[in-house]
DNA sequence: TCCTCATATGCAACTCGTTGCATAGCCAAG
DNA sequence: CTTGGCTATGCAACGAGTTGCATATGAGGA
C-alpha cells in the first residue's frame, strides 16, 4: 500500500505528471521507495478514480501533452490516517547475503568481483547523497533556517548516508573474508 | 527468483520439510530474506517437479507425516550458475522513511511513538543477533577453527548487526528531529 | 469432553511488482 | 530525411508475495 502513500507525499511536496513522478522515483523519493513508470501510471489512475487526486490536462508546446496530478481533500485525509496507523518494521530482502551464504557450496572467490561491483555502486550512491546534502541542506546555497519539511527530508537523507556508509564498511568486511577463504584449503 | 536460491542454500546447509524451512525463515535465513509458509510450499513443489529437489516422505509418530526435501545435482548446478551471474544492488523499501517525509503534512509529533516502537524492535533484533553470534561464532562453545560455511554465515550475521546498530542510531536522530520540530511553531 | 496449541500441508483469491511492447510528438545530429 | 533520443502515456502478460481459509494428527490442560 505504501506506493500510494509515497505518491501522496511526493505530490504534496509538488504536483506533477506520471512521468515526472517516475523521474522523482529515480532520485529523491526513490532513495527509499522504488517504482517503475507503469506502476505509477496504474496507481495514479486508480487514485484519481477514488477521488484522492485531481488531474489537469496541460498542453505543452514542443512536447507531448501531460496530465498534472495534485492531491485533493480526501487524499490528504488518507495520508493523515495512514500516518496515525502503525506499520510493521521492515523485513530484510538482501539477495547478496543469500549469495554469500551460498558461496559455501561453490568457490567463494567467484563472488569477489560481484561484491566489488556492489561496493562501487554504494560508493557512488554515497557521493551522490553527500552532494545532495551539501546542495540542499548544509551548503551556502541552502535556505536558513530550514522549514519542517526540509528538516524531515534532511533526516531521511542522513539515514540514506548512514546506510551507504554502513554497507560499504560491511562489504569491505565481506571482501576480506572471501579473500581469506580463497587462500585457505578448499572445503565441502 | 531469489526465494528459490535461498531455499537451495538452506537445504544444502541442512535438508528439511516445508514447515522446517518456514521456521528457518523466521530466524537465520529470515534475517535477510523473508517468506511465508504458503510461498515456500508452492516453490518447493515447483522445484521438485523441475528436478532440483528430491522428496522423502517420513512418517513420524506423535506427529503428522512430513516431506523432507533435499538438493539433488541439478539443484546444485542451478545454485552455482546463479552465483556466477550478477544481480543488481538492492533497491530500498523503507516505509518508515516515507512516513517521516509525510509528517511534514501533518503534526510531526504523531510519529514519535511509532518511531520509538520501531527503535525497540531493532534493539531487540540486535540483542538477538549478538546472542546468536556469541553462541555460534565467538563464544566458548563455538567450534574452532570455523569452516568456510561458518565464516560466511558469520560475515552475513555481522552485516545484520551493523545494520541494526546503524538503524538504531538513525532512529535516535529521527526522534531528536521530531522532538525539536514539535516544540517549534507549526507549519504548512 | 472440549479447547487450545504445535506440527504439518495445502488451495484460492487477491494485490503488488516487473518486463516487454506500443504509440506519439518533437528536436537535433548525421 | 532518417535515425536516435527525450518527453509522455499506456496495455498485456506474467511472476512474486500476501491473506484468508481448510484440513489433519496428537499432546496437554480446563
TrEMBL record, chains A, B:
SUPFAM superfamilies: Winged helix' DNA-binding domain. Residues 92-179 form the Transcription regulator PadR C-terminal domain. It comes from the Bacteria. Residues 7-80 form the Transcription regulator PadR N-terminal domain. Gene3D superfamilies: 6.10.140.190, Winged helix-like DNA-binding domain superfamily/Winged helix DNA-binding domain (1.10.10.10). InterPro entries: Tscrpt_reg_PadR_C, Tscrpt_reg_PadR_N, WH-like_DNA-bd_sf, WH_DNA-bd_sf. PANTHER family: TRANSCRIPTIONAL REGULATOR YQJI, TRANSCRIPTIONAL REGULATORY PROTEIN. This is PadR family transcriptional regulator. The lineage of its organism: Bacteria, Bacillati, Actinomycetota, Actinomycetes, Kitasatosporales.
